[in-house]
Design brief:
Oligomer: single chain
Strand content: 15-25%
Number of helices: 13
Strand order of the largest sheet: 3-10-9-6-5-11-4
Amino acid sequence: MSEFTDDDDALLAELGVEVEPKRVGSRTPQEERIIAGFEDIQRFFDERGRAPRHGEGLDIFERLYAVRLDRIRKLPECRALVAPIDHQGLLGEQTAILAEAEAELDDEALLAELGVEAELSDITELRHVRSSVEKQAAEEIASRARCEDFATFKPMFEQVQKDLDQGVRSSRPFEMKAEIAPGRFFIVGGQKAYVAEMGEIEITAQGRTDARLRVIFDNGTESNMLMRSLQRALNKDEAGRRITEPVAGPLFSDQAEEGDEASGTIYVLRSKSEHPMVTMHRDVVHKIGVTTIGVKQRIAGARLQPTFLMADVEVVATYELFNINRSKLENLIHRIFEPARFEIEIRDRFGRPVVPREWFMVPLFVIDEAVERIRDRTIVNFRYDPASATLVEREDQTGQAN
């Protein structure tokens, strides 16, 4: 390959490449960076199934990749360098060619033309890019005040996190403005956000609907922001998510998912352990689990297993359910009875301390009711109250019973 000329050096600089002397027997730093830049374009092609394109309405990075690809095509040394790895045919594909005026722009000027503010340490290092719309949304998100009544909302955030951990809720990519409503949770800027209040719907000068929100964040702050600002922030945040409502539907899906079984058994066990805490509460201390094998097989050798308190057990109830996801069902049951979890530490056969997690201080009749509510799919409307030893209706976010 021929050495780069001064004119080529200028073009390389526009590509974000530092021009350094070529090292004998290996690629120069600028060649490595040209290849790395081309590999970014190849990854884009693999993800989208096409080469990056120019266009005002397209993602900023796609437009930058399109500029980079055009310049690589026009510079013979760059074409020759990446040709051996061009298995997608990017060098030969026809796309819009830059106008001469645009081709003369450096990176910072190009970003300005694209409506983007850039912070550049030098021509070779792009540190951060934000569109003007993204900046406006980010400023609204950042303009927060301390939430004086955060103690009211903190338990809600904690419960949502438990629901996520146990699979009762899930997070999915944010899709549309209609999802923004009071009582819903989102993830934006790496934080959970709760829409506590929504004002009157208004029509903007552009004929679009908008409303003022009170949004509470899990770090104890709040923002009085517009609905469209939250929408923009969620759309611009690659990790922006909507947190779903707690539902039991996936347990009984019409379509099989990985982990689904034709049938499963909820089992309730009572321990025969002589541990003082167990003997004191034996009638209400129950292990609740789900198995897709026979219960007798599941409890075989119980006295050797810490999960069974290193003691034999008796089966006090079983319930057959069909087309269930075992792990999701088990997580749901354990979440319902979490307030009554039986905290006990025992020693395994090697003398190591173990804290089993599937034992609960719950009367058998309450477990019966919970299973019936799982069957009719109303369980999501109830929670277990240890004080009254009953299932009680959950309150919605406004304090009203469901």
